[in-house]
């Protein structure tokens, strides 16, 4: 019998094991980063539902509070100044929904890629962590529209209630 099988080189075997250990450590670090992100993703989705419910009920209540009947008895009208404020609020609500939707989609993509490759895309992660341009634009736009709507509402209500 010819016994020509070579035994693995111990140094090569040690290097292979060290690389495997490093890979496992990297995966553990990524998991400790991704676990809180997964909770954030769930919070974004939950917050999206909460915002939609609360703001739609608030918009109905607000419109109902300031409505008055049309002279020809063909329905109700909301004062135009309040309607403009509500328009700003509705745009703010839409941007808020888009903001949370964008965050949820971003986190979903990050997790999906990690689950496929078991490697974290650090560039994508850093972009998300720092806010990304789209997220920041949506955030500041929704805040801006809400503040403008609030200012229009305050001025409108003040003008409507001021005694002349």
Describe the overall structure.
A hairpin with a 6-residue loop joins strand 1 and strand 2. The relative contact order is 0.11. The chain has one domain. Strands 1-2 form a two-stranded antiparallel sheet. Helix 1 packs antiparallel against helix 2 and helix 2 runs antiparallel to helix 4. The protein is mostly helical and 164 residues long.
- Rough shape? rod-shaped
Biggest sheet layout: 2 strands, antiparallel
Distance between the termini: 115 Å
Mean pLDDT: 76
How many whole angstroms does the radius of gyration measure? 28 Å
H/I helix tally: 4
Give the helix level as a range of percent.
over 70%
Widest sheet, order of strands: 1-2
| Structural class by helix and strand composition | mainly alpha
What's the structural domain tally?
1
Strand proportion: under 5%
Number of DSSP strands?
A: 2
Low-confidence stretches: none
């Amino acid at each position: 019998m010819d016994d020509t099988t070579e035994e693995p080189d111990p140094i090569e075997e040690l290097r292979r094991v060290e690389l495997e250990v490093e890979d496992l450590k990297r995966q553990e670090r990524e998991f400790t980063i991704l676990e809180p992100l997964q909770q954030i993703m769930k919070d974004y989705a939950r917050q999206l539902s909460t915002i939609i419910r609360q703001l739609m009920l608030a918009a109905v209540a607000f419109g109902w509070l300031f409505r008055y009947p049309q002279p020809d008895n063909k329905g109700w009208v909301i004062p135009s100044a309040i309607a403009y404020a509500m328009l700003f609020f509705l745009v703010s609500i839409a941007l808020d929904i888009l903001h949370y939707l964008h965050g949820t989609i971003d986190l979903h993509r990050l997790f999906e890629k990690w689950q496929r490759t078991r490697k974290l895309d650090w560039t994508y992660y850093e972009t998300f962590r720092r806010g990304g341009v789209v997220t920041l634009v949506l955030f500041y736009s929704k805040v801006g529209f809400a503040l403008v709507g609030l200012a229009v509402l305050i001025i409108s209500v003040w003008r409507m209630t001021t005694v002349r």
